[in-house]
Amino acid sequence: MEAIKKFREMIKKMKAYQYALTIIGWDSNTEAPRNSFERRSEMSGYLSKELFALRTSEKYQETVKVLYANLEDLDDLLQREVKKAKKELDKIVNIPEDEYVDYMKLITHSQIVWEDAKENNDYQAFKGNLKKIVEYNKKFALYYDSDSNPYDTMLDDYEEGMTSKEYDHFFNTLKRDLVPFVKDIVRKSNHQYDELRSQSYPKEKQREFSQYLLDEFAFDKKSGLLKESVHPFTWNTSPEDVRLTTKYMENYIFSSIYSTIHELGHATYEQQVSTDFDDTLLNGGTSMGIHESQSRFYENNIGRSLAFWQTHFKKFQELFPEQSQGYTALDMFKASNHVEASLIRIEADELTYPMHIMLRYDIEHMLMDGSVDVDELPKVWNDLIEEYLGVRPKNDSEGVLQDVHWSGGMLGYFPTYALGSAYSAQIYYAMKKELDIDQLIKDHNIQKINLWLKDKIHKYGSSKTPKELMEMVSGQKFNPSYYVRYLKEKYSKIYN
Amino acid sequence: MEAIKKFREMIKKMKAYQYALTIIGWDSNTEAPRNSFERRSEMSGYLSKELFALRTSEKYQETVKVLYANLEDLDDLLQREVKKAKKELDKIVNIPEDEYVDYMKLITHSQIVWEDAKENNDYQAFKGNLKKIVEYNKKFALYYDSDSNPYDTMLDDYEEGMTSKEYDHFFNTLKRDLVPFVKDIVRKSNHQYDELRSQSYPKEKQREFSQYLLDEFAFDKKSGLLKESVHPFTWNTSPEDVRLTTKYMENYIFSSIYSTIHELGHATYEQQVSTDFDDTLLNGGTSMGIHESQSRFYENNIGRSLAFWQTHFKKFQELFPEQSQGYTALDMFKASNHVEASLIRIEADELTYPMHIMLRYDIEHMLMDGSVDVDELPKVWNDLIEEYLGVRPKNDSEGVLQDVHWSGGMLGYFPTYALGSAYSAQIYYAMKKELDIDQLIKDHNIQKINLWLKDKIHKYGSSKTPKELMEMVSGQKFNPSYYVRYLKEKYSKIYN
């Protein structure tokens, strides 16, 4: 079929542009000299425009249309791919061009406005932009599907198939079953390990420990590498080229350890996707939520386990003989699971983290159904965080202005963070039925865990939906009660 | 004028592709994981093809033609640019497409064949490819200009305006005035500093010394960076983004020191080009020869001077207290100017280096005028190196097979290496009239030398020809006698 050939060719062309933009972005985030900024945005802006032109070209639209009209003649994988292509197109091409252009300008500008507003603690300066962003997003969602709740369309952008109904169920479960528990634990939290956590750890030694972790987690160094950046992230151009970064903070050892392990979760996922998908739209992890489930699984279920510290405390002592003096593996375990009610999401621990997400979900929900106005956000925010965690921001920079997401138009993204953790708990209990996780950690055999995840999740890339994967890996639909159970079991033990 | 606008737009488009390919290449040479090779060649191959299509498109050809027909209406800079564009096009578009495609395949294949041949010391396996490469290059040169000597066309590819007549004069001067001197010095060379040169120097300390050199040479770290690679090189995307690499060898300290300084010469040149040329064909250094003159000037005229070691031996002692014990700045100066007749070009010292180039020029010349056949090259090679340096290869891997250039179709490139050194000597004597170079080195004020070179050479980018620049900087045409004088003065002193 002629259309298939054309489709393949055009996808391949897009891949080349994406490849270039990924490498340029990687360079920019990890080493490019400061003064190169302006020229780079001009050059990569040009390439992005070319890519966008390809993605929305008449020829591509026509080809996808033809294939979509003949879906039943295609094999399963191609069907999935064409449906994805069709959906991506539908989300863009129904938007009038001038509105799209205006929106792109708005977003670019809003990020600078947000930065300044955060810096100056001035929500008034930002709220006009936010209001417009919310309106545009609603409008665009309705262009795509005028019959659906706009927020559902946005949620689906980041987690295929998830609706506000399902997220409501998820967050209501947390509100009912978790909030009281979290408040209770937070009250019991203490400063016993502050010294261990915040004393000085030379960066050079931290680097060594991160490299050691790469090996322990069986990361394939011939198909990837570790570097540093201001905000840790993982990028890939193919399973044979997966790069992660971490952040070394002299006075906070857990920053690099858990950034490295978290990103190793993302990276291992990407390294284990089948290379068969390289030239298709089915490459890479399937969704934000599933991706985050992997990074959280590695970070929390493995990296913050007692077995982990029983196994690796020896290496830690070797690298930090003075700093570790007088402490045990159990201390490390407890210190790495320190709980504290904080105001800032990205500094939150495993237990309080979902509270931060819940509040953002509540707010997005209300913005979308119109039950709250952009003007009222600071107060709504502060009330909610106080309700969930018992702390109240002194200003909007540590409240509603703290995150970049909304200024970039990302509405519907936040809930995937909590969803990922909840997925990882469900995966954890499924894995426990087949593997002795603690023993594998102690045996320095995380590779076996990697392979289990490869077989159940990773190898499929985006060829399965998140819902299909959750059923395949755990034998049942997504069920938030595993998450509550996991957190209660773990933190009850630590805090008696 | 409509054509100017079109021309500018197309050049800008090409710049974006070049930008992407440069960053991808940089990544590939300095850190990309090993297994990423295949995918990268596919992706960057695609982008290169797009770039080539732009460069040879009807639209571009048409635009250049229109501008060329109206040259006199254009300002000087645009005239120069259009002429460059016209010449580049003429060198490609007159070649029949099938021949061009065949040649590209031949070259890609030949590099693998050459690698194997070198590895197996088997010239017979390579000579068939070399013969074809020579024939194609002759043919292509004649397509461009059937009236000129084909070798002149090739020489002009790498050094605008240079002909075999001028190179003959240059190399004949060296043969007459330098060969006997070199042979004499080589006889006097000894192994007094072998220990100082080849003892162990920890790489970490070498890295520190290279970073120190970056500062001493006033390299702008906000507009560039230093990394490592197998073969040191310098790449740039604009004067605000200039990256160099060096190579750290535990048992050869001068590798990193002089690679760093050499590349700093290239890098300083690129950093000091006017950013006005960013979006034109006049960006970057003007020719191979002028570029090499800068790298050699920094490496040899500054880095291998007595003043250099008198100034920086202190830092060297600080980093290598044990290794430097019992030595003086004078020893460092002498050790870094150690002369030895070697068989391998890339290992040659400043004095014997031009001998290696001379022999390659002789051979290219003979290949081009047909006075020697590809079959006879090994013997011709061995005879010539013996004549110039008194050493004879035991096999072709250390003889005719040692360099990659010919397998990549680069005929006419080699002479620019020696030309660069000769230019640098002429520039050196011109600079000495205006600056006290030694004193500036001792005053840690290399920045003043940088600025002198910026003003006389660097800032012009490619807007001036090599010949124009040599006249501007030294007040006279290129004159090889400065080179002979410089080498004789320097090495007579060292070797009495």
Report what the structure shows.
2 copies of one chain form a homodimer. The first copy, chain A, is mainly alpha-helical and 496 residues long. Chain A has helices at residues 2-30, 37-55, 58-69, 76-93, 97-120, 123-144, 150-158, 164-177, 179-188, 194-198, 203-216, 253-271, 288-302, 306-319, 329-336, 353-369, 377-389, 415-434, 437-442, 446-456, 466-474, 481-494; strands spanning 224-228, 234-238, 241-246. Chain A has a 3-stranded mixed sheet with strand order 1-3-2, sandwiched between helices. Chain A is globular, with a radius of gyration of 23 Å. At the A-B interface, α1, α2, β1 and β3 of A face α1, α2, β1 and β3 of B.
Largest sheet properties of chain A: 3 strands, mixed
The largest chain-to-chain contact, stated as pair and per-chain residue counts, equals: A-B, 38 and 39 residues
CATH topology of the largest domain in chain A: Neurolysin, domain 3
Strand content of chain A: under 5%
Instruction: Give the helix level of chain A as a range of percent.
Output: 55-70%
CATH class of the largest domain in chain A: Mainly Alpha
CATH architecture of the largest domain in chain A: Orthogonal Bundle
Q: What is the succession of H and E elements of chain A? A: HHHHHHHHHHHEEEHHHHHHHHHHH
Q: What would you call the structural class of chain A?
A: mainly alpha
Question: What is the end-to-end distance of chain A?
Answer: 65 Å
| Tally of DSSP β-strands of chain A | 3
Number of helices of chain A: 22
The gross shape of chain A turns out to be globular
Oligomeric state of this protein: homodimer
The count of domains of chain A is 2
- Taking pLDDT < 50 over at least 5 consecutive residues as the criterion, the unreliable ranges of chain A are none
Average predicted local confidence, pLDDT of chain A: 96
Q: Rg of chain A, please?
A: 23 Å
Task: State the strand order across the main sheet of chain A.
Answer: 1-3-2
